[in-house]
Write a structure and sequence with these properties.
Length: about 290
């Protein structure tokens, strides 16, 4: 999975997913072998020559300017995350754009942040979605069936992508599992564009593609999604149903902290308080003046 092949695959797939009527391209009632746009039609919409676009899609022209890439992104109707992903793929396809990723670790500052977030579920995840650390509530909410000390041993670290696709407990945890799964795949797509030289990342994608038909199908769709903020209904085996907002703190090259919050005064907040008491017997629930007592 090199940068050149990723760039070509992305362009071909997204072109095939854009119907002529969506792009405003007249077909005059002709019968088409494929539902998507032809190369020439996409090139015309982008304002570039058909030959130069074809070379880019085939991996023979790797010096497209940011302006040309943005024009192609507009023609393909890509959103902002997808436009940046296209730029990443073009950059990674050139030798100067291929950089080996640095090893990941939890810094002292991130560790302090995790301690400060003791009252909410929080986990530290690396670029490949490896769990590098978690607090007690983060472990209890996302993976209470696993050894709490697993993130401390590199060879045993849980991987959130593997859990979502290959672990029955995690699959049952999300009421809308398909939505969560698409978000995981979309984020991995973004990361592979940013780190084309990460062999472990490519191994993870290959493993999931081989073991999960759902993953393979979603991966072939070439959709990308930045995991920033999302609502999820979770069905926890200890405290039942709760809705959390999962937020990713930090989008730089280092690990990110993912926290799960609930609405004050809601049944979901009460369920999270119960979970906190369940993992620390005798611990008082957080006081909340808006929490109903009736």
């Amino acid at each position: 999975m090199n940068g050149t092949s990723q760039l070509g695959d992305f362009l071909r797939t997204r072109r095939s997913q854009l119907r002529p009527d969506e792009a405003g391209v007249p077909t005059y009632g002709e019968r088409r072998r494929v539902p998507g746009l032809r190369r020439e039609e996409l090139a015309l919409l982008a304002g570039v020559s058909a030959s130069s676009y074809a070379r880019l899609e085939q991996g023979h022209s790797l010096n497209a300017s940011p302006e040309v890439l943005d024009a192609i992104a507009r023609a393909l109707r890509l959103d902002e995350a997808e436009r940046l992903h296209l730029r990443d793929l073009a950059r990674s396809a050139t030798p100067r754009g291929r950089r080996r990723p640095a090893p990941e670790r939890v810094t002292e500052a991130t560790g302090q942040l995790l301690d400060a977030l003791a009252s909410v579920p929080a986990i530290v995840v690396g670029r490949r979605s490896d769990v590098l650390a978690w607090n007690r509530l983060g472990h209890a909410l996302f993976a209470g069936h696993l050894d709490p000390g697993a993130p401390e041993v590199p060879a045993e670290r849980p991987n959130m992508a593997r859990l979502v696709f290959l672990d029955a407990h995690t699959r049952d945890l999300y009421a809308d599992w398909a939505g969560k799964a698409r978000a995981v795949v979309g984020n991995l797509r973004l990361v592979t564009g940013q780190y084309p030289q990460d062999a472990a990342l490519h191994t993870l994608v290959g493993e999931l593609s081989a073991k999960s038909e759902d993953f393979a199908s979603m991966w072939a769709d070439h959709r990308v999604k930045a995991c920033t903020v999302a609502d999820y209904e979770m069905r926890h085996p200890l405290v039942g149903s709760l809705t959390v907002i999962q937020q990713t703190l930090g989008h730089g090259p280092g690990p990110s902290v993912v926290v799960a919050t609930t609405e004050p005064g809601s049944p979901s907040r009460a369920a999270l308080d119960l979970l906190a008491q369940a993992i620390v017997p005798g611990a008082p629930a957080r006081t909340d003046s808006r929490l109903s007592t009736g």
